[in-house]
Design goal:
The chain has a six-stranded antiparallel β-sheet. A six-stranded parallel β-sheet has the order 10-9-8-7-11-12, sandwiched between helices. The chain is built from twelve helices and twelve strands. The chain has helices at 4-12, 14-35, 45-50, 52-66, 75-88, 94-110, 117-146, 235-242, 277-288, 311-321, 343-349, 364-376, and strands spanning 155-166, 169-176, 190-195, 204-209, 219-224, 248-255, 268-272, 297-302, 324-329, 337-338, 358-361, 384-387. Helix 1 (4-12) crosses helix 7, helix 5 (75-88) crosses helix 7 and helix 6 packs antiparallel against helix 7 (117-146). The two termini are 35 Å apart. With 399 residues, the protein is an alpha/beta fold.
Amino acid sequence: MLTQSTIDTVKSTAPLLADEGEKITRLFYEKLFHHHPELRNVFNMANQAKGDQARALADSVFAYASHIDQLEALGPAVKRIAQKHASLQVAPEHYPIVGKYLLEAIRDHLKLHDDDPVLTAWAEAYEALAAIFIQTEEGIYQANEAAPGGWRGDRTFIIDRAEPETDEIKSIYLRPEDGQPIAGFRPGQYVGVKTQPPSSEFDEIRQYSLSSAPGDPYYRITVKAEAAGTSAPGQVSNFLHDASVGDRIWLRPPTGDFVVEKRSERPVLIGGGIGITPLVSMLLNAVQQGWELEHLVFIHCCRDRSHHVMHDELRALSAQKGFKYYVAYEQGEGADHLGYLDTDILEKWLPFEGRGDVYFCGPTAFMSGLNILLKRMGYGDDQLHYEIFGPRIRFSEAS
């Protein structure tokens, strides 16, 4: 338990962290990678290059400081972050290293003495938070290892086949090299994929949603090749696109909390671009489980027909199973709606008066705008479920 003095001191720093947090976390990462370059094998260096990770960590530290006297409010965030850490195989021994350089960054940026009460309080607070994450993550590791077909750490998989979906997107089918069964998963979860691209001196780990249904003897991931020539080209996505059948990669067990927890009366699945992938898994599971699908709505938004993933598969499945399938394109022909989603088209496609649960995934701007529209239509926070790949942002606070 934290002392009241520690709680008061940490909570009093929340406004300062809101203003200075990103500068502190940037300094933290500089220190961390300078002294421990091996951790580049764990962290997503593309997010580092874009600055996303520093912003997300600053938000997390600010949230912790703001809620340190009511940590139960952080429970969902802790579970979500722990799931992501598990896909990266974050270990207990990483936490003291992170804590050392985070405290150093706070000290140096704020020009504090080593014995300043703020540093003392934050050292105690960090230790308490690290203990929570270590315990939560160990529970995930143990559950993954104990599950039928489960494992802990890395497991070698073979690319069994790769099928083009569009010019820049492929579905890649993965089978375990040892030929043994694989763990089941909850629709919407992702796997941590570790590769060793020739273009990188470090291991590269990314998370990819499983786009297949639970129970298949393989895992399917659907990957978009990110364009080169940017500040953070898609090293892993391009490596996977260039890989050949029979090539090896390493997977961590399925994790993630963006899942369908219950059979909703009027489920809505909305995907933007490649964000469709976890939603396809949810849909295929609903079909497998024999849901009554006449009230299920599946909406896919993308640039145009040439960028439309799984179009024929979903059209055919909709005709066969009876769920509503709508398509919105930014340009071109062949869609049910041309342009971005707005309240008028959503009220037409979702005539439920705010009933049911909505699961959505896609680019951050897409989800931020959609979140606002759905709330205006009467959907509450407990009905809105979304997945963000990369560092978490706080768009859900928008109204």
